[in-house]
Amino acid sequence: MNATPPCLDANQAYREQAQNLMQKMGMSFSPENRRYVISAQIYLMPAGLGLVVDGSLLSDSASRPAFLHLFTLGFMLFMFYGLGAHMLPRFTGNPLPETRWSLLQMGAAHAGVAAYAVGYFAGWTTLALGGAVLAWTALLIFTLRVWRVLWP
Amino acid sequence: MRRETGGVRGIFTRFPSYASRFPPHPFIMHKRNRLFVSIALTYGLLGGAIAILRLIDPALIPGNVPRLHGHIMLLGFVLMMIYGIALHVLPRFGGFPLYSERMADWQLYLANAGLPLMMAGWLTFIDGLVIAGGVLSYAAILLFGLNMILTVRNRGRL
């Protein structure tokens, strides 16, 4: 027996239709940009723990770089990636293709933030350095991708 | 593709002072705002590279490097990205054109004069440079804030 009333089914169908239409019109997020925005919120949660553990994001404790960079590299930069890749092509009228470079950027960004945070929590400076290089590489790829959109 | 050079728009290349008064198209991002975003990305890469070099060897770069890194990322990357996006988006969301294109142009000049001065001050431990750069950066912040307030306070009859 189907427990969902027919009117709710109809609403769901209309909602999906509207979402598909928005996706076709280019108003809603692409799957990749959606992932960036969701990831940003996920990084924000452990970053906020710094307020509980250290009392501040700018405390003098040894874990400060980890919490601070979970906030800046994890939350802020991922929001820039997701919103920037969504908005800048619409503001300029130039497309931003999602290629293997965008996948590489996503992978490097995630690996970079994770390695940096774990490196500082565990006291492994080399791991933190590797994470920083990966995060910087992700920003470089994003810059090169967006540069073509800004200056075609 | 719409370009700002050539054709009727070529007048902007011959008389650049008119370019800010008559942006190329109301829906296309102004060149100044694209410059803000591009400069923000460049500062982001620079600030990141400085932090990486410091992680490799703390003595590699002289001066107050943590402060240098922090301010390049905050004033250079985050704030200039917000300048570029907000100068494009807020007038459109507000429903009225930007109050002053000239103020926004000067904001670009001041912000990009101030931060390099501050950077030079931290690298060389010369406080005067840091203060002078801070004053210029603050002037840019004031211009932006004022321009945005005067743009967004406009309302229709509803």
Major sheet of chain A: none
Query: What integer is the average pLDDT of chain B?
Result: 87
- Which regions of chain A are unreliable across 5 or more consecutive residues at pLDDT < 50? none
Shape of chain B: elongated
Give the SSE layout:
The complex is a heterodimer of chains A (152) and B (158).
Chain A: H1 6-25, H2 31-53, H3 64-92, H4 100-122, H5 125-150
Chain B: H1 10-14, H2 31-56, H3 65-94, H4 101-124, H5 127-152
Give a structural overview.
The complex is a heterodimer of chains A (152) and B (158). Chain A has 152 residues and is mainly alpha-helical. In chain A, helix 3 runs parallel beside helix 5 and helix 4 packs antiparallel against helix 5. Chain A is globular, with a radius of gyration of 19 Å. By secondary structure, chain B is an all-alpha fold. Chain B is elongated and about 60 Å long. The N terminus of chain B is likely disordered. At the A-B interface, helix 3 and helix 5 of A face helix 2 and helix 3 of B.
In summary, what is this structure?
With 152 residues, chain A is mainly alpha-helical.
Features:
heterodimer, A: 152 residues, mainly alpha, 5 helices, 80% helix, 0% strand, globular, B: 158 residues, 70% helix, elongated, disordered N terminus
